[in-house]
């Protein structure tokens, strides 16, 4: 895609893939201005599918992209004040290959791919992985290829923070004469690399949760004024919205970006929403103060909290999917948010799941060269990832769209599929017995799950509530009840 | 003491021991009525030390008791409407033997014995141990002799609850003709046994935290009317207040005793306070709703809560010592309050200590004959007790009266002795490094404590804050800083 020659376009594309047209013009006065060209596409039935803005890609090259969502012959036209950027043509869209399910959208309080496949979000975080050397980026991708995660939180702008002192290998915007940022023109090299990394994640089946702003800075990014924010957002949306695996995270810890008001964030949301013809998911992530996730442009909650027992409450409050993208990380660093045991990290995934929500992973083990997964990627050194994989397997065996929370009794929440299935965990508690009394009298098959040793032990026979069960009396035991057919 | 012959009295007693006079009268119309006789004692200087009510002890025998608090020759007089109960005499009080420190009183937000020795409360709970067979009671005492606990919560009335189905070996009050309780006369056999058990605990250096009422019943105790409550309280105070190791706990889970109002509890407090010439400690223990511990008759807070991080706040609120007598128990039973791991149980003691308070232990491991320590006593099967012993050793090495809480930084509380000593724990967190920055710049010796393996590792040399320390990166690590002399 990014190798489309200027004046050419993608002749064949897969459903949910990226169609791209490239054109040349040397006479654009302000190449970084929004929408130097627009791309109108028509689907196989001839109707207009939509209009996407194009973008400058360095030199005299401009591009525009579209994600066709159904097979057949598509046609397109570009429009521009510059005649050189005007072209038209057609392309063929093949059916999605096996395993390609299309973009993720909200389905009630859960997620679903365009083809109807459920999306159970099991995210992780490598904030600054695209700012590390290419070799380390490749290592990150290899690690992700073996890991249980299907979403990655990642920043566009480089990160300045403890354990993140190195310079980015490339900047999204160049350094200005006064040592700050020059936001007039983006750096095409950086964004071409970002394109490739988003596509790499797509091949791994991983959603790219792209963090558009964040407060960890020494280069001047958060000082961007309202006009430049608008240009930047429209630029990155023009570049990336056609990628089926893109999610827009307006910010990480939006509430500690200096000098931004709530209205600034609202404006950014509206800009992204208006610019994105594909309507990719939009969220914003807090530090302490929560954004009002009830606002119409927020598609789902992206929370920072350790209160995983409140996920069900938050779903009710906003009637949207809840993703707790940060609930502290497995690791051994000093800050409280970075020294969970693997068992506790995995347990927090269980709690979020039982609340009907989704949880994000991160890993922060000290490393002599500060190669902490949570920020730079590289390799995983902890022990929670396989336990999260175990939970993901359980969830994939569960209800088609995901579990709903049910209050099992005053002191216990369960994940439920109607009255047919219940799943819950005792966490760090170690009961050696438990009396099961869901509000239904039918026979159940019972699985006892050791979530640490990752075993499922089906008990013989069927039990009709209320029934008492002997349990291992070890922490991190879970139980699943499955209604007998 | 209880073997004092009628018509006789204790001729020699140790300081903080129990002086007793026994008298006979066959003509008392209502032996269970309060104060059939009163005992006035005068100390070595001739001044009146106080007046205690006597009590009926079965048949025609009446007794009265006093705890002399200083050595020398004491004198006494009994008074009564019945001439047979009137006598007088003298007794000698020897200095307290080594290790006998006298009753515990409040000292600011801590406790102190009468002789000035600090009392660091490390309690445990065997609610119904005096209602079990004598052999098991003896086993409980043997266990306590080896355990780190110096306070025992215990009920006067028998307990009916899950895992507590057996009949008491003796009842404090007999069964009435209609199958309920007859509160006219107490059962002297029961109370004589109770005397002995309180004295047994005293010999082990253990405070008897005597629970006067509780809601777990099938025999009719909570139905006691106001008049009978008054008689009962004055009776048990007359019997037991002279024991130096007695604390009065008005109730366990007072707020779920059916049909009692807050005013009823106030009245009971006032009765105990008025009846007790020794002024033993008074508290009341909640289930959900907290009593107003600011009331003047409450000497210290006896809380049920798992929010150990709030102990410092509660000390501030009530300006009294805080004992979290229940914060869930080590064990493996079904209810959430009874299946903590040993590590978590011990950790909760650390949290309470760091908040400047005190914590109570309990143990609830399933047993084929329902012999759970928390209720019946017997033997300890868990692993938290030695870890609590380790903490007790650390606390005994600490400030003379006990640690004060200090906010180390926003995310961390420390126990402090002024600016000379800091103690804190990382709990289940596993940092491999930590930067110590207390608000003082002086050299400290540093001990790294493994609170699970119970080791103290002094680091070589001195460190002046701020300084960074490498830590084991294992859960349940604690650190102690000691100012270099």
Structure description:
- The structure is a homodimer of 485-residue chains.
- In chain A, strands 16-15-14-13-12-20-18-17 form an 8-stranded parallel beta sheet.
- The mean pLDDT of chain A is 95.
- In chain A, a hairpin with a 4-residue loop joins strand 10 and strand 11.
- Chain A folds into 3 domains: 12-94, Immunoglobulins (Immunoglobulin-like, Sandwich), CATH 2.60.40; 104-396, Alpha-Beta Barrel (TIM Barrel), CATH 3.20.20; 416-483, Immunoglobulin-like, CATH 2.60.40.3950.
- Chain A has 485 residues and is an alpha/beta fold.
- Chain A is 20% helix and 28% strand.
- Chain A binds chain B through residues 331-336, 339-341, 344, 366, 411-412, 426, 428-435, 473, 475, and chain B through 331-336, 339-341, 344, 365-366, 411-412, 426, 428-435, 473, 475.
Question: What's a quick, concise take on this entry?
Answer:
By secondary structure, chain A is α/β, with parallel strands linked by helices. Chain A contains 8 helices and 29 strands.
Task: Kindly list the characteristics that best describe this protein.
homodimer; 485 residues; alpha/beta; Immunoglobulin-like; TIM Barrel; 3 domains; 8-stranded parallel β-sheet; 6-stranded antiparallel β-sheet; 8 helices; 29 strands; 20% helix; 28% strand
